[in-house]
Structure formats: C-alpha cells, structure tokens
C-alpha cells in the first residue's frame, strides 16, 4: 500500500496544510481509497500524481466540516469526468442525509453508482465494514463530541513463497497449474497424482495494515483496533501542555497519540490533524509535538501534505 497525505491540518486550512484527507493507493488493483474529505481535497488531487478516476471507496470518520465539506464537490467532479464505475461511501449515520441534501439542493446529478454504508453497527459490534478476497476493513468507535470512527484497512495474508525447484523435482508440468499451487490449492495432475499446493509454499506472508484514527481523545477502542498495525495515522491536535484543552474538546495530544501507538504495538506512528497554532515561527511548533511523541514512541514521524509513505508488511 502507499499512503498519501492530502490534508493534515485541524479545523481550518493553513498556507502549508489543507484540512483532513488521506489517500490509500492500492497499486495491485489500480484503485484508490480515501479517508475523510475536507474542503479542497479535489484541489489537492490536482497538485499530486493521484488519479481521481481511480477512486473506489471513501471512509468518513465523522461529520465535522473539516472532514466532509470537500466530499460533494469531489463526487460531482468525478461525475463530470465520466470515468467512474461507482463509489462506495462509509461513515456515520448522518452521512447519507447530508450528501443527498447537498446534491439535491444544488441540482447535482451523479452519473455513476453511489452507495452509502453506515458503519455504526459494525464498529460497535466489532464486525466487518468491508471485505473482499484481498482486503478487509474494520472500525471502532472513538471518543469525540459527535459520533466518530477509526478505520483499519488490512491486506489478508498471502501464500508463502512458491518452491519452484521442488515442483520441478516432482515433475509437475509448468503452466496454469503452477498458479493454483501458488495459491495453496490442491491440484490433480494428468497422471492422477493430487498435489497439495500448501506443501510447495513457505509460511504465509502477512499483509499490510494501516489504521486511521481521528478525531478522539485517548481511548482503549483505538488501541485495540490498532494492535500490531504497520502504520497508525493518529490525530495530534494539541501539544502535551494543552492536555486540559484536549480533554475539553475531545481531541488528542501528541503524547496521547504516542501512548496509543505504544500500547497497540504498531510499527510506525504518523502525527496528523495539527492545530494551526503550531505553525512555524510560533512558540511551540509541529517539531515540538513530534519530539514529545518520540519520547514515548520513537518511531514517530510528522505527516505533511503530499507526503507519500510506502507501507510494507511486517516480517
């Protein structure tokens, strides 16, 4: 997977940071997923190499404007392009009414299939939000002023490395049968032998897992959702010194994000959703928030608009 940060500011955009949006690129299927869609997200697409025509799914954490105001415009532009085969949206209960209201009152027609899925039940009951042959998405409820959800996108384990030398020793003829064996299937050959593909493959290879967690004050549900993830993208709206304000506004500090990462045992932590008060030149800057987080969880980095991160599976 490849993660591209399209917006990393909280509340309002700044000169250097747009409001929340993260793209997840799935190169193996030429598909793009989006997590949140703050105002101006479609403009961010124009400033990077992502292709809006590849957008297939959008996951919304909550209904605050800095996370959803860009969605109607983006969907409308996608329709005008005439290249979409359909988009599925996932989010809080009011998402459908909000979107339908904007599209109706602006006389906007969407010329492709558009489906909205509520995630509340799946998040509360720890069931699946989305699943196909390769990927699975789950969610968890967060602690915020309105209903909010974190998402975990994970590749399913892949078959281990195929031992082609062993296959040749067994005189298995090359061709389509190799593909089936590589998938771990059992295959009956022309000579009557049945070969179990699992005996020709090494241990399963873990898939990549990415967790997107915003907006919330520290909560145990986020820790459980992020267990062992390769990358945790977590809001860091405030510095540790502003903890009282963070609790009041139901947001996280840098140290809360780091605590979540440490307790969940993730591989990397990306800090995002920073308050504009930490702009360069101010008394406290984003670099200070990173330093606070690294004191608890060393493998922390700062998310910036248009930063691309290749996420590799754990060994």
Notes on the structure:
This protein is α/β, with parallel strands linked by helices. Helix content is 27%, strand content 24%. Strands 6-5-4-3-2-1-16 form a seven-stranded mixed β-sheet. A seven-stranded mixed β-sheet has the order 7-8-9-12-13-14-15. A two-stranded antiparallel sheet has the order 10-11. Helix 8 (220-225) links the parallel strand 12 (209-213) and strand 13 (231-235).
The span between the termini is: 15 Å
User: How many E strands?
Assistant: 16
Backbone CA Rg: 22 Å
Structural class: alpha/beta
Beta-strand content = 15-25%
In the sheet with the most strands, the strands line up as 6-5-4-3-2-1-16
Q: Number of DSSP helices? A: 11
What order do the helices and strands follow?
Answer: EEEHEHHEHEHEEEHHEEEHEHHEHEE
What percent of residues adopt helix (DSSP H or I)?
Answer: 25-40%
Main beta-sheet annotation: 7 strands, mixed
Low-pLDDT stretches are none
Task: Note the overall shape.
Answer: globular
Salient structural properties:
alpha/beta; 315 residues; seven-stranded mixed beta sheet; 11 helices
Provide a concise account of the structure shown.
The chain is an alpha/beta fold. It contains 11 helices and 16 strands.
